Amino acid sequence: MELEKKIIRYVAPAFIFVIVAIFIYNLASHGWIPHPGKSTYQVQCAQCHGDKGEGIRVLIPPLKSSDFAIQNFDSIPCWLRHGISHEIVVNGQSFNQPMYPIKLDDIQVANVINYMNKEFFHSDKEISSAWVRERWKHCEQ
Amino acid sequence: MRFSLFLLLAIIYLTGCNSGGDKLPVLGFKTTEVREVNGQQVIDSVDYTVPGFTFIDQDSNTVNAATLQNKIYVADFFFTSCPSICPKMMKEMLRVSDKYKNDNRIVLLSFSIDPARDTVARLKEYCGKLGIVDSKQWHLLTGNKDSIYSLAKQYLVSAAEDPDAPGGHIHSGNFILIDTQKRIRGYYDGTKEESVTKLMKDMDLLLNEK
User: Inter-chain contact B129–A57, Cβ cutoff 8 Å?
Assistant: First the structure.
């Protein structure tokens, strides 16, 4: 009886404390809740544009603070769907390496654009999958 | 007494694990050959080696066995219009090139598996975009398509035309480390930063190998 009381009084709170500590540690080490577009970005975009959106020299344009992407924001869903096959100028530098179409659905595109917005375009603007579907209707292809 | 015993055990422990760990394996199937030593026939194993080739690089220079004499080299297969893994491979190869620039014991070779489109002019333009200046160390190569495809096979990596793939070709993203005797000493995933960091460690080991 004494032993049971001791367990309830000391061991159980310690146990809960450890569980909570592990939970917080995991969240902290894996980043608090990751952005839903982050994994798509890392799998589909980061190969060329880099984890931090830095691009590759003069071969692949950067996304980070890209004036071209920010000024032509409404075209991003079309670029993802159809690629880009002409020369573009990003932050004063000309790039001419084809971008290939990427197979993503409207929700994935919305998530990945919101992720880029936050990480690279310094904007809090959030777009929806409905907006992506609407933009797709106006692609120049 | 007890302390010296501890010291002895510590030395055995610390040195014991190192033996053999600092030498890279020789990869590929070994074959056997019969040789005559002092009038007696002996069977000896022969390491797998990669064959020679003659291709043209971005500066229209011929690259062949003479270029690679006594060099350690890293090879990969790519093409300039490759949309998927090549840009990342190039970015990783740039790290290798940056680390070993001015080291004339090292050569880097990137074979184009789309030589019809990847002309010398196009390779040169691609080098410009990547900022590859030292064409004596890093050669981007073009030549006869069948020779390049058969060479990929002999480097034990895959390369093929595939109309369904983006860019029309599929190929392995491996970096292959070859020693001065043309033996394969390692494969590394050229799209992964940690794997290429391992490659550079292994290159240092290989440079110090006697």
Answer: yes
SS3 B33: strand
Task: Find which of B129, B189, B193, B196 to mutate to test the A interface (most A CBs within 10 Å of its CB).
Answer: B129
Residue type, B206: L
Say if residue A61 is in the same domain as residue A115. Answer: yes
Helix B86-99 to helix B193-208 angle (10° resolution) is: 40
Positions in chain B short of pLDDT 50: 19
A16/A55 same-domain check: no
Q: How many domains does chain A have?
A: 2
Q: What's the sign of the alpha-carbon dihedral B107, B45, B21, B76?
A: positive
Chain A touched by B130 (CB under 8 Å):
yes
Predicted confidence (pLDDT) per residue in A6-51, tens digit:
888 888 889 999 999 998 888 877 777 788 999 999 999 998 999 9
Encode pLDDT of B171-204 as tens digits: 889 999 999 999 999 999 999 999 999 999 999 9
* Domains along chain B with CATH numbers: 50-208 (3.40.30.10)
The ipTM, to two decimals, is 0.75
Do A105 and A65 share a structural domain? yes
**Residues of B with Cβ-Cβ distance to A99 under 8 angstroms:** 83
CB contact under 8 A, B83 and A57: no
Question: Which of B80, B85, B88, B192 has the highest number of chain A CBs within 10 A, making it the mutation to test binding with A?
Answer: B88
Instruction: Tell me whether residues B83 and A100 touch, CB distance under 8 A.
Output: yes
Question: Is residue A83 domain-shared with residue A14, that is, in the same domain?
Answer: no
- Residue B188 is encoded by which pair of tokens? 């590394």
Encoded tokens for A60? 């692949």
Regarding whether A79 and A59 lie in a shared domain, the answer is: yes
